[in-house]
Write a structure and sequence with these properties.
Largest sheet: 2 strands, antiparallel
CATH superfamily: lambda repressor-like DNA-binding domains
Number of helices: 5
CATH architecture: Orthogonal Bundle
Structural class: mainly alpha
Strand order of the largest sheet: 1-2
Number of strands: 2
């Protein structure tokens, strides 16, 4: 099972840069990348609330559960 974070889609729809988004939410661009790349293990509700406020969306617009057989493989650290 995987939870997919769709921040990249919402940022593109709103024509918002990662830097502007990170500043508005109050997190680093590196942490935005962790969320976008599916490497996040947790998210604080306060951060989720700030993301939803900035993107004017609901948590369900950001997070989607995908069963294992549908989960795209994540790149390994060795291949990066």
């Amino acid at each position: 099972m995987a939870v997919v974070v769709s921040i990249d889609v919402l940022l593109a729809q709103r024509k918002m840069s990662v830097g502007d988004f990170a500043d508005a939410v109050g997190i680093t661009a590196a942490n935005v990348a962790v969320l976008k790349n599916g490497r996040a293990k947790a998210i604080r509700f306060s951060t989720l609330e700030a993301i939803c406020r900035v993107l004017d969306c609901q948590p369900g617009d950001l997070l989607q559960w995908v069963p294992d057989e549908e989960t795209p493989p994540r790149p390994s650290r060795e291949s990066a």
